[in-house]
Specification:
Structural class: alpha/beta
Helix content: 25-40%
CATH topology of the largest domain: FAD/NAD(P)-binding domain
Number of helices: 16
Bound molecules: flavin-adenine dinucleotide
CATH architecture of the largest domain: 3-Layer(bba) Sandwich
CATH superfamily of the largest domain: FAD/NAD(P)-binding domain
Number of domains: 3
Distance between the termini: 15 Å
Largest sheet: 8 strands, mixed
Length: about 500
């Protein structure tokens, strides 16, 4: 039997490889970068390893389970601290709001910030978010294929009224208007759309479920999020997975209609019993891994957003930073119109700042620290040059936004690494810099994503661009789903 080949060591690929090894398969992971993790990566800046991708870690129990299935314990590989404050939020009018993780503490905080009635509406919002999550977790997220009939069947006839609660036909922005009369809170929770690279004006209200996911816990990883990728790769290697880095796959090969192996960019051929593609579906759809594989994934959908990021070691002053901090732009509608309608950088962007080493309730400022500063950007990195002038202009708008909430940030070029949509496009082929796969706009979007099985026998899909969607936990879940589907198919084939 030839090994199973996994293309890409992103979270989805790593989890698929580990799960397949646990199920007894011989697995080889081929990764074009020099290290595992994909978007989950850190970069060296002025002697510090700074996270350059995800920073918000949720759904820890899912990872506990992934490690447990491989006979290991997550807590033995990683040091995790639960955050009591999800994020510090700031607006131009000088107001600041720390959102606690704990439900009742959060209700109290909203009450102090926006009044008792708003706190009651927030309580209802959280209950509704929990209900959406409960309806969708098993019947939809954990299903290998995202189909509407499948969802209806799994939810069951008796619980069909509960499906209405997921509000797929209402936009997130509109739904939030029912809960929040304070426009700052509406803006705060609308930001959940950006967790999947979407606009709150077009993403379905279903995304409210993120509020519930966060209420289950958000953790800070000692040493940064990239440690998670290292831990998964080390565990997979210990369970027998072979990793080849600096190893780019140039094509997926078929024989008799079935995937039989891959061809590396340098011409080497590797036979495979099946292939898990952890690449962006755009790379399959545009034919770069084989013209005959274009139809192996769903038709091309519009792209999710990209980002422009600054990893800096810098001195800040005037604003005590938490681990996660959000500085809201004044015109949120205009920000998303720029990114999604005009393909432009926002003039007054909302800025996310992760202070990597900030501990709980650590309000120290005015010292040098490692930061990730991020603004939303259009996924046009394959068409638009992000030259020095464009980046300098964006940096100016970013720093102006921070300044309007009292924060100054001095950036020295030698202590700063910028990643633009063009850099994301080069690093993760096929997506033009989109970092969350096809955009989740409208109610249909979730149902037309690729599932665990590609449309060609022997091809399986894992990662943030396929079902159940983007984000570290979802990509991890997609890896488990791909491994389970592959395992089932190979065993069924072996029995015949
Ligand atoms: C700046 C940023 C911030 C984010 N913030 C968060 C957050 O806070 N929380 C969260 O949960 N998520 C966040 N995300 C999203 C999250 O990082 C992704 O959804 C998730 O990591 C995607 O994993 P994946 O399995 O799709 O693999 P990817 O990370 O996309 O990795 C795919 C891998 O495949 C490799 N590859 C591609 N083509 C080939 C080829 N031909 N041959 C060999 N290898 C190939 C690539 O090099 C890469 O390593 C963020 C992403 C970014 C970029």
């Amino acid at each position: 039997m030839n090994p199973v080949v996994v293309i890409g060591a992103g979270v989805g690929g790593l989890v698929a490889a580990l799960e397949l090894a646990v199920r007894g398969h011989e697995v080889t992971v081929l990764e074009r970068a020099a290290t595992p993790g994909g978007k989950l990566r850190s970069i060296p800046v002025a002697g510090q390893a700074l996270d350059a991708g995800p920073t918000v870690f949720t759904q820890k129990p899912w990872f506990d389970d992934i490690f447990a299935r491989a006979g290991a314990r997550l807590d033995e590989h990683l040091r995790l601290t639960p955050l009591t404050v999800l994020a510090r939020h700031a607006w131009s009018d000088g107001s600041r709001f720390d959102l606690p993780t704990d439900g009742e503490a959060a209700v109290d905080a909203v009450g102090r910030f926006a009044g008792r009635e708003e706190a009651q509406r927030y309580r209802r919002f959280r209950a509704d978010a929990a209900a959406i999550y409960e309806v969708l977790e098993q019947p939809f997220m954990c299903a290998s294929r995202p189909s509407l009939p499948g969802l209806l069947a799994r939810v069951g006839f008796r619980r069909l009224p509960a499906l209405a609660a997921i509000r797929p036909f209402t936009s997130l922005w509109r739904a939030l208007g029912d809960y929040f009369h304070d426009q700052r809170l509406r803006q705060l929770f609308a930001r959940y759309a950006t967790y999947v690279g979407a606009s709150p004006w077009h993403a379905p209200a279903t995304l409210m479920l993120i509020a519930h996911v966060e209420s289950l816990g958000v953790w800070q990883l000692e040493g940064g999020m990239a440690r998670l990728a290292e831990a998964l790769a080390n565990l997979a290697a210990a369970r027998g997975v072979t990793f080849r880095y600096d190893c780019e796959v140039g094509g997926i090969e078929r024989e008799g209609g079935r995937v039989r192996g891959v061809r590396l960019a340098d011409g080497e051929r590797i036979a495979a019993s099946a292939v898990v593609a952890n690449v962006d579906v755009g790379a399959l759809r545009n034919g770069s891994l084989g013209a005959d594989l274009r139809s192996a994934v769903p038709a091309h959908a519009a792209r999710s957003s990209s980002a422009l990021t600054w990893n800096v070691v810098a001195r800040t002053a005037g604003f005590p930073l938490h681990h996660h901090n959000v500085f809201f732009g004044d015109d949120y509608a205009e920000e998303f119109a720029a990114v999604f309608e005009r393909g432009a950088l926002p003039r007054d962007p909302t800025v996310y700042v992760c202070a990597q080493d900030a501990r709980l309730d650590d309000d120290v400022d005015a010292r040098e620290r490692g930061l990730l500063c991020l603004i939303n950007a259009p996924a046009n990195g394959d068409r638009v040059a992000y030259d020095a002038a464009r980046v300098a202009q964006a940096e100016k708008t970013m720093r102006e936004r921070l300044a309007r909430t009292g924060m100054t940030l001095s950036i020295e070029p030698a202590k700063c690494v910028v990643t633009s949509p063009a850099d994301f496009a080069a690093r993760f082929p096929g997506a033009g810099g989109a970092i969350y796969g096809p955009v989740g706009h409208g109610w249909r979007a979730s149902f037309v994503r690729g599932g665990a099985r590609g449309r060609v026998p022997g091809l399986y899909l894992a990662g943030g661009s396929v079902h159940p969607g983007p984000g570290v936990p979802m990509a991890a879940l997609s890896g488990r789903l791909a491994a389970a589907a592959l395992d089932e198919d190979l065993r069924r084939g072996a029995r015949r």
